[in-house]
User: Fold this.
Amino acid sequence: MNDADATVLLGTGSKDSGPLNVQKEITIPDEVAPATAPPQGASFKTRLRHVLGSEFQLLSLLGEGGFARVYKARDTRLDRIVAIKVIRPEVIGTELFMESFRSEGIALAKLRHHGIVPIYNIRERGGLIYYIMPFVQGLTLEQRMSQGRLPPFETRRILSELTDALSAAHQAKMVHLDIKPDNVFLEGDLQKVLLVDFGIAMAVTDTVPEASGGPIIGTPAYMSPEQAQGLPDIDHRSDIYSLGVLGYAMLMGRPPFLGRNATDILKKHVEEAPVPIRQINPSIPKDFADAIMRCLEKDPWDRFSTAKELGATLEAVTFFTERRTTSSHAKPVVAGRPNVAVIAITAMVIGVLIGWVIG
Assistant:
């Protein structure tokens, strides 16, 4: 196997996923000349350009975090726009993060779903690890939420599409573990929901990497109580809790728990009950609010048993508006004021009857 064919499986749980336009085809790389070591002291972008060679043309930086950067690029051979996610070189030697990086590739290799962004290829060259993804034209749910609270009907649609994608992931024995607005994309004019970044995903038969006393990986505001504690028996119901947090945040404009720091927020997930949705906004349909609050139960056994069950409940939610019993165009009747039309008709009827009797 030459360097062009060698691949490694990787991922990241960081907030670096940039806008990624989903296509169905999978790239099978042609023979590519092995990358040579980039110049000593070269910048990160220069190193990446050197490693990519003429195969990809970097266009712009889409996003970055503590573990990786995402670039918009043009595939020169297939003449298409892609996203390239590259792991920072200083992270490559960290075993904990390396396992996390690999897990995303493992997860995405198993998943085939229209609501989950796939990957085209994964490579390791010149001391850099990166993979090529579809480029999605749209905005993140985080960007959408920054415009204000989402109406219940839109919130229900987004949650329903996410539960469908997660149901496929859970059936493949994968738990996402980092569901948050930054990892949900709304693609195109129709705002199609896409789930990205399985960077800290795990097989449900495995233990959580942080359970052995290492750092807790994820996003505190959206973590389940069991994930916040680093418990070893985490399963798909952790994602259901995170969906509940997401739904709560879309409707209320903020997650159920805020705090001075990450530790404070994690403690609240474990110990405090969220304020009921209808206590804050009574206009939210009761069955919808109840479904989200059930997702937020501390004990996983008290939540929905599967994402499919949650999806069915969301589909059954009814949205209605109160109808007025009187038409807004009807003229009011004023008490004590004679109706001229009624008097005229009555007089005519009486006149006819009198004429018939006399005749």
